[in-house]
């Protein structure tokens, strides 16, 4: 026989005083099959519990439905406290679902929090059903065709995928930046000085070196730390909307401008605006940016009013702005306004002392991103895995390491990520192409043999390091026929294997 579980509602008690049914009584009396027991959870109106139990038993007896009716105390903090309601509901739903052929849960009585958690927890049990009573005491059996576990896992997977495609989480302040290497220690010292000085800062570095993380650390270590930190990728700004996005617009300024809009400069007022890939800005926008830096003033699109803003600019680019100034692509006066403080982030291949700690930090974040996925088990990197990571050049820098670790985590069933898994997770580059053109003027001289030997030595050293100093692997990487040729090269180039 089935069981009915319900929270006690005030309407149930009020109607009892008039000897009329509310939700609990209606369900108990009109359900097609008599209930073996009715368990009611309550946390208030203690003085009426016994009276209600006896009244409901009498009403059931008149229909020859002898049923055990019991009200029990639910130890909850308040009728809207989800954690305590969840604990009590889970306890009784689990117990009754195991003991009964079928468990029906009343969704009409109690607070919305009680109803919501009853549905979520009840859906996890195959023999749980949901029933409601209308104001005129008709029964409605609710078919909730939602697989909550599937929806939850889909949502968790979507969130993890969203985090995976972004950069690692910015760390607050310099103290949490990984800087064991001397190069990074020098960068952090310089950046710390710039942070306190409130000057504009230009961050240079290859793609994936962590320019946004550094910008966030400068902001968090400045006097503006409690004010807004706004980020915009200048390379992703639509050409026809760039002024509106940066400086705002007034209603009617252009088709679709249905109301006044604050731009990023106004949104960041009092704080910091990070202009990522600033080298992508068009010349006319560079002029307006220069004015904002020089005078602290902006004008919304379509407006005649000038607005004063107090915004610190941190800009970043992977492009060579000096070359762009020489070719006229970037304004010289804007460059020197931005480059009062200059930070050049070293590529990962020049931060070997940081790589192990950085890999462990990134893996911890990846584990945290995926922890809500059903069946996911956290991974760790083995000792030989760390050695492999340290041996690689990582031309894509931190971002490449980040994505490689993601692939390694998702493609191994082992709790430990080893060198073999990482090797299979690295995206192989088919060839390294020389992108710089070479030109000579009549009469110029060059020692080709010296250049050949110089670059040969660099590539041999790089291949040896990347292969873990395994001659067979290094030979394949260099496209040589056999490792004897490699040995011969090493002798001529005075290259020895580490001991």
Low-confidence stretches: none
Q: What is the class of the largest domain in the CATH system?
A: Alpha Beta
User: Can you tell me the CATH architecture of the largest domain?
Assistant: 3-Layer(aba) Sandwich
Number of domains: 3
Number of E strands: 15
Beginning-to-end CA distance, first to last residue: 78 Å
CATH topology of the largest domain: Rossmann fold
- What is the radius of gyration computed over CA atoms, rounded to a whole number of angstroms? 34 Å
**Helix vs. strand class:** alpha/beta
Please, could you describe this protein's structure?
By secondary structure, this protein is α/β, with parallel strands linked by helices. It is built from 20 helices and 15 strands. Helix 4 packs across helix 5, helix 7 crosses helix 8 and helix 16 packs across helix 17. The longest helix has 19 residues. The chain is elongated, with a radius of gyration of 34 Å. Pfam families: AAA_lid_14, Sigma54_activat.
Record the SSE blueprint.
Elements: E1 3-7, H1 10-17, H2 23-30, E2 37-42, H3 49-61, E3 68-73, H4 82-99, E4 103-106, H5 112-122, E5 128-133, E6 139-142, H6 148-164, H7 182-197, E7 201-204, H8 211-220, E8 229-233, H9 242-247, H10 264-267, E9 272-276, H11 283-295, E10 297-299, E11 306-308, E12 312-317, H12 321-326, H13 332-338, E13 341-344, H14 352-370, E14 380-381, H15 383-391, H16 397-411, E15 416-417, H17 419-425, H18 448-466, H19 471-477, H20 483-492
Parallel strand pairs: 1-2, 1-4, 2-3, 4-5, 7-12, 7-13, 8-9, 9-12, 14-15
Antiparallel strand pairs: 5-6, 10-11
Helix pairs in contact: 4-5, 7-8, 11-13, 14-15, 14-16, 15-17, 16-17, 18-19, 19-20
Domain Sigma-54 factor interaction: 177-410
Keywords: ATP-binding, Nucleotide-binding
Pfam family, one: Sigma54_activat
């Amino acid at each position: 026989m089935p069981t009915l579980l319900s929270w006690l509602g005030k309407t149930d008690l009020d109607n009892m005083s008039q000897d009329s049914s509310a939700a609990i009584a209606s369900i108990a009396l009109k359900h097609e099959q008599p209930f073996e027991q009715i368990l009611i959870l309550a946390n208030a109106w203690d003085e009426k519990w016994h009276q209600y139990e006896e009244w409901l038993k009498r009403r059931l007896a008149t229909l020859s439905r002898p049923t055990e009716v019991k009200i029990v105390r639910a130890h909850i903090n308040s009728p809207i406290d989800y954690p305590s309601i969840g604990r009590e509901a889970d306890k009784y739903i689990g117990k009754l679902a195991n003991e009964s052929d079928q468990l029906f849960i009343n969704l009409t009585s109690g607070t919305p929090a009680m109803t919501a958690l009853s549905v979520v927890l009840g859906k996890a049990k195959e023999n749980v059903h949901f029933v409601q009573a209308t104001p005129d005491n008709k029964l409605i059996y609710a078919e909730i065709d939602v697989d909550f576990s599937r929806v939850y896992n889909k949502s968790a997977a979507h969130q993890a995928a969203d985090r995976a495609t972004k950069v690692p989480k910015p760390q607050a302040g310099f103290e949490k930046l990984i800087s064991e290497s001397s190069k990074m220690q020098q960068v952090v010292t310089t950046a710390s000085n710039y942070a306190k000085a409130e000057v504009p800062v230009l961050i240079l570095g290859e793609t994936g070196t962590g320019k946004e993380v550094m910008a966030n650390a400068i902001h968090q270590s400045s006097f503006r730390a409690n004010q807004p930190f706004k980020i915009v990728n200048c390379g992703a700004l639509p050409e026809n909307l760039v002024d509106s996005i940066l400086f705002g617009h007034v209603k009617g300024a252009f088709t679709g401008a249905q109301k006044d809009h604050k731009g990023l400069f106004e949104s960041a007022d009092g704080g910091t605006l990070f202009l990522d890939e600033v080298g992508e800005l068009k010349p006319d926008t560079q002029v307006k940016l220069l004015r904002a830096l020089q005078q602290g003033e902006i004008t919304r699109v379509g407006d005649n009013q000038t607005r004063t803003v107090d915004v610190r600019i941190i800009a970043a680019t992977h492009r060579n702005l000096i070359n762009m100034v020489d070719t006229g692509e970037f304004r010289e006066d804007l460059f020197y306004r931005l480059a009062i403080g200059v930070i050049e982030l070293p590529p990962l291949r020049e931060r070997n002392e940081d790589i192990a700690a950085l890999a462990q930090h990134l893996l911890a974040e990846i584990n945290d991103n995926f922890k809500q996925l059903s069946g996911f088990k956290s991974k760790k990197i083995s000792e030989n895995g760390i050695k492999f990571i340290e041996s690689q050049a990582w031309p894509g820098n931190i971002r490449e390491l980040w994505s490689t670790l993601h692939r390694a985590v998702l493609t191994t069933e082992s709790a430990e990520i080893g060198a073999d898994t990482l090797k299979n997770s690295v995206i192989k580059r088919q060839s390294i192409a020389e992108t710089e053109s070479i030109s000579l003027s009549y009469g110029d001289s060059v020692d080709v043999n010296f250049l050949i030997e110089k670059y040969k030595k660099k590539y041999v050293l790089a291949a040896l390091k990347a292969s873990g100093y395994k001659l067979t692997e290094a030979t394949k990487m260099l496209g040589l026929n056999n490792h004897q040729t490699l040995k011969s090269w090493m002798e001529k180039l005075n290259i020895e294997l580490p001991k």
